[in-house]
Amino acid sequence: MNSPAIHTAFYLSIIAWEIATMLLAWWGGFRLLRAIRRTAAGFHQAKSVAVRPLHCLLMWLVAFLSVGGEWFLMWQSKSWNGQDAAFRMFTMIGIVLLLVALPDAEGQP
Length: 109
Fold this sequence. Notes:
mainly alpha
């Protein structure tokens, strides 16, 4: 694929994915802030939006690791190998997703 139009469209789709993820993350954060004084069930219900951007980020990082690592052989480059950083981000976001998705119980601090 040597078409500049395809490259540009793919690049713009990545930017659109990141913008949509950022907007979802802000929306989820605001919903959680508004629900902070609600019951545990109400707060857990507000998490429904907050977990979506975390899923989007995990999918983006999996695509980055698989496409960049295998298709473009990123692991062979000493200066352009971002797999370690992507794996660290994937792990951190995965842990945050697990913590956010846990159900809340009444009486928790």
